[in-house]
Amino acid sequence: MAMATYISHSPAETEALGEGWGRAAQSGLVLALSGDLGAGKTQLVKGLARGLGVTGRVHSPTFTLVNEYSGGRLRLFHLDLYRLETPAQIRSAGVEEFLQPDGVAVIEWAERLAPELRPGPPGGPFRLVTVRLEITSDTTRTIVHDEF
Does domain 3-146 have CATH number 3.40.50.12160? Predict the structure, then answer.
């Protein structure tokens, strides 16, 4: 699968990228986000939610594991694996059910998912798109993602 690169110069540009993805998203999409703290993962999810028509306040579910947002075109499940360190912890937290979402799932710190927990091959009913956000300067982020 081809990769695409997007250079964001502000949080607003990162949100705008997510908003476009939200408008195009189909049910069953799983976005697997990776990147350091402050790289813009939550900004991207805020835009995605806006593109889906979610009107509620979007914030990182660091302490709750998952936030669910409804009211938009599709339900949005926002997961944060930052506090889970092992595949066993991730499995026992029930993350697997969100890998085949009735809507769209976004997983922050997705690099912590064991390979056997990742969604199936492209072309199936559930689609995994990997997104890596890199801090390239105080205001610039490089976002490398699977094309979709």
Answer: no
